[in-house]
Amino acid sequence: MKLVMVHGRAQGGRDADALRKEWLDALTYGLARANATLPPGTEVAFPYYGNLLDKMVAQLDAPLTSIATPKGTNPDLQPELRGEILAGVAAGLGLTEADFDREFTGTREKGPANWEWVQAILRAIDCVPGVNAQLIDAITRDVYVYLTFPGVRGRIDAEIEASLGHEPCVLLAHSLGTIVAYNVLYRRDAAPACPALITVGSPLGVYAIQRYIENPLRSPACVGYWFNAYDDRDVVALRPLDKGTFDVAPPIENKSDVTNFTDNRHGIAGYLSDPIVARKIAAALSA
């Protein structure tokens, strides 16, 4: 069976083959820890969209862009979604509106449509020990662009759809890639099947994001089993995908105790090196 691996953001300028090897090396280490191996003949697909995403985000930073925007303006003039995502992350970190107030120096009405208020949220996040607000800002920027600009979303989705092909496959996705994977699988018929969807470091539990992905929320018809793993110190994936945040049937199995050893607790190597995550991937490919 084929394993399709969908990467996240910040991969622009990377060599696709080298990046694919990084994923497989980490997975091989996790499998060794689990005393497991991939089934013989496993085909691995690694659709690479890193350069495409970076290019399109850069185009959207320009005053004029060839990509249609929701209201025809620069995305930073429409910060509502970014502000809502950041507020959701901040809430997961235990911050409140009082924390934002202490950082707010603007004069306009508070709220996610006011970029000064959004900046106050970022400053409050930056005060949390061990949290990189600049990283969170960059992540929400790319998620925002993917979710709200149809030209970006359509081209990236097409890259993943082409890799899935017309035979059953297991899909493994990380970070922004979990949003892309959900949207692509959501639109597929029940066949060909995806026996397992494995998501790691996923921000799908953020309520603001859920309003912009395919709706109503449900497990894609082609997915037989959904396993989600996260490190509860990973600020991109602070919430499980459970009844409280992502209520679908059948329910998603969550693993919350990954010890992600990467600097930001979000890196793919820290997830694929986990023996339980690796064993779930191998088992899905063997089913």
Please characterize this protein's 3D structure.
Strands 2-1-3-4-5-6 form a 6-stranded parallel sheet, with helices on both faces. The radius of gyration is 19 Å and the shape is globular. α7 (150-164) crosses α8 (176-186). With 287 residues, the protein is an alpha/beta fold. The chain has helices at residues 16-33, 50-61, 80-92, 97-103, 115-126, 133-148, 150-164, 176-186, 207-210, 268-272, 275-286, and strands spanning 2-6, 43-45, 169-174, 197-200, 226-229, 253-255. The protein has 2 domains: 2-53 and 151-286, Rossmann fold; 69-148. Mean pLDDT is 87; it is low at 62-78. α8 (176-186) links the parallel β3 (169-174) and β4. It is 44% helix and 9% strand.
Q: What labels would you give this structure?
A:
287 residues; alpha/beta; Rossmann fold; 6-stranded parallel beta sheet; 11 helices; 6 strands; 44% helix; 9% strand; globular
Low-confidence stretches: 62-78
CATH topology of the largest domain: Rossmann fold
The secondary-structure element order is EHEHHHHHHEHEHEEHH
Question: How would you sum up the global shape?
Answer: globular
Main sheet attributes: strand count, strand direction, barrel closure: 6 strands, parallel
N-to-C span = 9 Å
Overall domain count: 2
Number of strands: 6
| Helix-and-strand structural type | alpha/beta
Query: What is the subunit organization of this protein?
Result: single chain
- What share of residues is helical? 40-55%
Task: Output the number of helix runs.
Answer: 11
Radius of gyration computed on alpha carbons: 19 Å
Assigned CATH architecture of the largest domain: 3-Layer(aba) Sandwich
CATH level 1 name of the largest domain: Alpha Beta
Strand order of the largest sheet: 2-1-3-4-5-6
Overall mean pLDDT stands at 87
Q: Look at the structure and name the CATH superfamily of the largest domain.
A: Alpha/Beta hydrolase fold, catalytic domain
